[in-house]
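wait is this the right file?? whatever heres the structure
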């Protein structure tokens, strides 16, 4: 891989590079986002006669979830093997973009990520290439809102267990929202009690596949989620309300979800084959409000990040994504 100006080797190793995107300053200092890229190998035949792979004219932009960052190298290779250029964005104050003295993940309006996404799209230097957005969990919520407000930019949206609705139902969210909003205005940095018992991180370790390894930096993705601040929580609930009111995403959407959920109070082996973070039935219902073309794929045995599930469920997730992506190419090539 040839390193262009501004790109340098990434922590994921050979084949991955990163670029820092300056976003100005806030009251905690310099704010940056970080763009990671993995480019497809190009053969002599590709250079001479053109790349015939199905996604040769596609750029993918991935956005991670809450208390998270990009580390899923296999996901990048999946798209690169089909000809796409793969990019992943560590949003401001997450992962590679977190600077000393900053409040991890903190934001008070999900629309503020427009600046991060705009900087990423500019650095990608896309030209006429099609754009596929890929978001996990809170990143799926962020990209759904962005795609609805920016029609005509993306060509498709893939969502991996997107956090589109509050876990305890929309009715509970609506009742809770005024209280959270008031607290966010008065005390935005108030911290909610920690309710994550580390079971999701344990489930990932339990189903880890030595033949398909991932390396996770605990500084950027701790076993228990980062502190939940009132201002951030209010931003998420406002995003949920906008989804509930109905979005107008003008491109095909694919939503990948586990077949089942469990909200645990103690550890059990069941948690290695369910989404223990979100209520997947609520998410499936909310997904139908994203736009007019929504495919929902329910994957038996998947955990919250379907691409980190046990072997059988993980391979099923990749197979379903492949089927949908190839169908998208046929319809919109």
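ok assuming it is, sequence goes like this
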């Amino acid at each position: 891989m040839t390193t262009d100006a501004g790109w340098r080797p990434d922590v994921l190793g050979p084949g991955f590079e990163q670029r820092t995107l300056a976003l100005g300053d806030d009251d905690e200092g310099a704010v940056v986002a970080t763009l990671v890229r993995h480019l497809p190998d190009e053969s002599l035949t590709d250079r001479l006669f053109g790349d015939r792979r199905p996604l040769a004219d596609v750029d993918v932009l991935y956005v991670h979830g809450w208390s998270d960052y990009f580390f899923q190298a296999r996901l990048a290779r999946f798209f690169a093997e089909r000809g796409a250029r793969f990019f992943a964005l560590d949003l401001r104050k997450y992962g590679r973009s977190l600077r000393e003295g900053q409040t991890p993940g903190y934001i008070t309006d999900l629309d503020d990520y427009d600046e991060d996404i705009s900087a990423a799209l500019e650095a990608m230097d896309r030209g006429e290439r099609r754009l596929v957005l890929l978001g996990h969990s809170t990143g799926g919520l962020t990209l759904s809102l962005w795609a609805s407000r920016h029609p005509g930019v993306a060509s498709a949206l893939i969502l991996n267990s997107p956090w589109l609705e509050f876990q305890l139902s929309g009715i509970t969210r609506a009742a809770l929202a005024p209280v959270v909003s008031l607290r966010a205005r008065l005390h935005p940095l108030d911290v909610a009690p920690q309710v994550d018992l580390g079971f999701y991180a344990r489930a990932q370790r339990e189903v880890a596949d030595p033949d398909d390894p991932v390396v996770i930096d605990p500084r950027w993705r701790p076993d228990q989620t980062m502190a939940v601040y009132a201002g951030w929580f209010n931003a998420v609930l406002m995003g949920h309300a906008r989804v509930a009111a109905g979005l107008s995403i003008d491109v095909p959407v694919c939503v990948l979800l586990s077949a089942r959920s469990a909200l645990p109070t103690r550890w059990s082996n069941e948690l290695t084959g369910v989404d223990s973070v979100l209520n997947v039935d609520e998410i499936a219902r909310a997904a139908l409000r994203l736009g007019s073309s929504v495919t929902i794929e329910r994957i038996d045995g998947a955990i919250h990040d379907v691409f980190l599930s046990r072997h059988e469920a993980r391979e099923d997730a990749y197979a379903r994504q492949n089927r949908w992506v190839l169908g998208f190419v046929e319809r919109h090539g």
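Strands lie at 8-9, 17-26, 29-38, 58-63, 85-90, 130-136, 156-160, 253-258, 294-299. so i think its the right one actually
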